[in-house]
Description:
CATH class of the largest domain in chain A: Alpha Beta
Domain Toprim (chains A, B): 77-172
Number of domains of chain A: 2
Protein name (chains A, B): Recombination protein RecR
Helix content of chain A: 40-55%
Distance between the termini of chain A: 64 Å
Radius of gyration of chain A: 21 Å
Zinc finger (C4-type) (chains A, B): 54-69
Strand content of chain A: 5-15%
Oligomer: homodimer
Number of strands of chain A: 6
Shape of chain A: globular
CATH architecture of the largest domain in chain A: 3-Layer(aba) Sandwich
Structural class of chain A: alpha/beta
CATH topology of the largest domain in chain A: Dna Topoisomerase Vi A Subunit, Chain: A, domain 2
GO molecular function, one term (chains A, B): DNA binding
Family (chains A, B): Belongs to the RecR family.
Strand order of the largest sheet of chain A: 4-3-5-6
Largest sheet of chain A: 4 strands, parallel
Amino acid sequence: MNTLENLIVLLSRLPGIGKKSxxxxxxxxxxxxxxxxxxxxxxxxxxxxxIHKCSQxxxxxxxxxxxxxxxxxxxxxxxxxxxxxxxxxxxxxTGDYKGLYFVLHGVLSPLDGIGPTELGFDRxxxxxxxxxxxxxxxxxxxxxxxxxxxxxxKHLLEGKEIEISRIASGLPVGGDxxxxxxxxxxxxxxxxxxx
Amino acid sequence: MNTLENLIVLLSRLPGIGKKSxxxxxxxxxxxxxxxxxxxxxxxxxxxxxIHKCSQxxxxxxxxxxxxxxxxxxxxxxxxxxxxxxxxxxxxxTGDYKGLYFVLHGVLSPLDGIGPTELGFDRxxxxxxxxxxxxxxxxxxxxxxxxxxxxxxKHLLEGKEIEISRIASGLPVGGDxxxxxxxxxxxxxxxxxxx
Lengths: 195, 195
């Protein structure tokens, strides 16, 4: 296999990139500027060397602690549990949350061998105890796995004096009921609030 | 700007990659294996160092001549003019063409300052004369620019005893060869008409 074919195979392993997109990207790199290729290539090669997980919450960071854990302006009594590091970015973009986070880096998936130990539930409990968390928001995705994971964490904390909530799921804002799926409409009805 | 944000900006400069896809790719690289990142990064960084244009046809190659120009099994009296190197890959995948190629690496586009000189029409004429080409297939894309470029080349060769054809049926007008299916390209080759 030659250099170009090899690059196309490598690129098509990226998420959402098929063979056609990978080929288009490779030819674009060939046609583009060498300096850009050098910078991009180096960034990719050295990514995991420069970035690691925050020792407190698991968010990706270049420092020992991420910018959220090291901030003095966050409410340390509220903790939000998310599946992935990028979910933090999405929640932060709303500006509606001022507490701390805990990243699971996955969901419970017994068939894939991912259980409570692999997701670091002991670290989560440690973190909750250390901070003295009063409110826990379970913000795993509204999928079968995300729901199971949230439920498991809720059971783990039974008996503790912590207010536990689950992010609402239903119709997306700007959505149209005509095109929504049954499950979303069902959840939207079950989760209805006084108005 | 930190390392991760910087990588997302770099990735979103790739064709067809928006900010959302770039972010998804970056987090996937962070979560994935370091060895893959190293190999991919190095491939991208060194791409233009390893690959250059074939001195005869302009196709991308790692050798002095590309595999098609250096093959003994090709019909040297037939030349197919294409816009981009990847168009060769598409035509070769049909197995319907046995002649040689000439890559323009673009189309005539006066507004962008791309004229006959920039596209190397003198090299094209040299190549036609050297090979003693009897048949020329104009396989630029069926777009306004591709058509103009084909027409320009046809006029350049007026008076010479060369059978000139233009790929025709099969490709949707306004489309791009890079995204066409094999059958459409095959039909376009077989259904070419005197030009």
